[in-house]
Structure formats: structure tokens, C-alpha cells
């Protein structure tokens, strides 16, 4: 319903494909949507695809479909990206990091880490990897955070350093997105090591630094090349509604053109309209350009 409203608001036609487990509900919702559309808009603006077999054929229609927005598992998104020439808006992975710097307020760090992991573990903006400055590896504050995670039912796995130091099971991969009550922890030398780790193993979704050092925070915010980068705030804030965008069509980790939570503005492009009376460029000879802002209509 939200995505249909975004399509209508941005003047886009839409083909919806929901999960098979909600097929009957989707059919009713589609009828509600089309019933309220006025004739000036057209009932056929919002279509419903019910068969999975139709998807492969639709993905071949790059001459008539402008954009595909897949929402679902890594496997689904990766498969769609690999099987179409149509531009794809979205992300396959949500490997989000929280980095606790040596100057972090550990009470704030604990609040952020707990929220980022357990508020909604299956969400793409949930924390999957906790990075900790090496100077904090034996601190009571870190012990408290790890105990709180375990108390909440979170399984903790370690990178090579944390595995040895904390005597916890070794993580299979830093690329893994748990999407459940589990996470990886690893120790890093400094903020630059944290940034390098994020760029090597992250998915450019949402990453956070917890620190009281403004210079370190600024380094992290400027250098981490993710769609959303936070200082002292939970990764769970990476959301269209929470960003004030209204309804959200998805999250884009691409660089062009929409990035981060995508609302109605991300579904709009620009048209340039020129009205003249015979003007020509002629190498810009004897032409003076006067630029001024005009109100959008």
C-alpha cells in the first residue's frame, strides 16, 4: 500500500509482486488500491503479478520497465540483479557496523549496541558486526555490553582477535549478515582500522561510531562511504519514516541516483523544458547567458 501510494504520488506506473504466503491478502489490497483510483488516473496504473513464473519474463522488458525495486533475501536480490538489464534500486546485504572508539561513553555505547542489534534483528539496518578499539578490550564497560547482549539472547561470534581473547566461537565470515539474534565482534587498532574494516567487509548500508572525540567522529563520518553514517546513534534510525521522508520504497546502497532510504523524491527525475523563438547556439557568439532561479511548477 505504501509503495503504491509512492508510485501514484510520483506519477509512475507500478507492477507489484508480493510473497506467495500473502497472495490472498495482496489481491484484496490491490483491489482496494485500484477501487479508489479516479478515472483521471486510471485503474491500470497499479498492476499485480501473482505468479513467480512471470518475473523472469518481466525482467526481460528493459524497453518498457524503467526500474526494479527488489525487497527480500540476499539470494533474491542478487538473482534479480544478475538476470536483468533494467536498473535495480536496492541492496543485497545489510552488513552494518557499530564501532566503539577508545573515548566512547560506554553507557551510550551499550544503549546503542543493544538497540542496533535487538530492536529488530531481521531488519537490514540491524547491527551485524561490533568493532571495538583495542584499548577497550579488557574494560568493564565492554564486559557489560557483551553480558547484556547475551542476556537478551544474542549469540556472539569473534573475529580472529576476539575469538582468541574472549574465548568465543569464531565467526565464519565478516561478510555474513545474520538477520537474527547473533553478531560478530572484533578488535581494531584505531578509527582508521575500523574504517578500513568497514570498507572491506561492509555493504555500504549503515555504519555508526560511538565516541566523545569530535575529530575522530568527523574522520569516520567523512571517510566511511556508506549510504548512512552515524555518530552516537543507533543504526536502526536508517529508515525513510525516521528520516522524515514519509513512506519508504526501500534502501539503496548504490551511488546513483538515489541513496539511503528512498522516498518519493528518490522516485522522481528531472525534465528540462525550453521555450524559444528561433534561438541558435552558433558557438555562443554574441550570446550572454543570464541565469536566475524560477519557481517549480
Describe it.
The chain is an alpha/beta fold and 297 residues long. The chain folds into 2 domains: 1-92 and 242-267, Aldehyde Dehydrogenase, Chain A, domain 1 (3-Layer(aba) Sandwich); 97-238, Aldehyde Dehydrogenase, Chain A, domain 2 (3-Layer(aba) Sandwich), CATH 3.40.309.10. It is 30% helix and 15% strand. The chain has 9 helices and 10 strands. A 6-stranded parallel β-sheet has the order 5-6-4-3-7-8. A two-stranded parallel sheet has the order 1-2. It has a two-stranded antiparallel ribbon with strand order 9-10. α9 (214-223) links the parallel β7 and β8. The model has no long low-confidence stretch (mean pLDDT 94).
Strand order of the largest sheet: 5-6-4-3-7-8
CATH class descriptor name of the largest domain: Alpha Beta
Q: Report Rg.
A: 24 Å
Give me the number of helical elements.
Answer: 9
Low-confidence spans: pLDDT under 50, at least 5 residues? none
- The secondary-structure element order is HEHEHHEHEHEHEHEHEEE
Give the DSSP E fraction (strand runs of 2 or more residues): 15-25%
Level of helix content? 25-40%
Mean pLDDT: 94
Q: In the CATH hierarchy, what is the superfamily of the largest domain? A: Aldehyde Dehydrogenase, Chain A, domain 2
The termini sit apart by 27 Å
What is the name of the CATH architecture of the largest domain?
3-Layer(aba) Sandwich
Structural class: alpha/beta
How many DSSP-defined strands?
10
CATH topology of the largest domain: Aldehyde Dehydrogenase, Chain A, domain 2
Q: How many domains comprise the coordinates?
A: 2
Envelope shape: globular
Profile the largest sheet. 6 strands, parallel
